[in-house]
Amino acid sequence: MSDSKRYEGGCHCGAVRYDVQLDLTQPVLTCNCSICFKTGALLAFAPEASFTLHSGEEALVDYQFGKKSIHHLFCRVCGVRSFGRGKGPDGKEMRAINVRCLDGVSLEGLKLYPYDGKSR
Question: Which sign does the torsion angle of CA 101, 95, 23, 35 carry?
Fold first, then answer.
């Protein structure tokens, strides 16, 4: 049974705000690729339909590297990467949520799943 809940989140300055339906009882990905490692991202994934961007589309800057399959989105005001866009293994649109940017979420107790993005 899913423990999915609705969370609100966004960037540091508040320009980017969204809500997302996630199950944080599931493992959160810790990726060692160059960008996730350097920014300290902890990622949870949601289908596009479970994500609503309320404000800040115009504040988002898109950065891509490597295979250019993931849109790493940064707030142009404060520089925080609170979520990204891409496609899941099934080809459907998804959102990669930086759990550190969700309001009121305690990182203690999260199950972490190490992912070797550095080798891909």
Answer: negative
Name the strand (E) or helix (H) holding 38.
helix 34-39
Residue-wise pLDDT tens digits, 4-37: 999 999 999 999 999 999 999 999 999 998 888 9
Q: Give the span between the Cα atoms of 31 and 8, in whole angstroms.
A: 23
What is the H or E stretch that residue 35 is in? helix 34-39
69 vs 118: CA distance, rounded Å = 15
Distance, in Å, from the CA atom of 97 to the CA atom of 45, rounded to the nearest integer, reads 6
What pLDDT does 83 receive? 97
**CB-hemisphere CA count at 13 Å for 33?**
16
Q: Which amino acid is at 41?
A: A
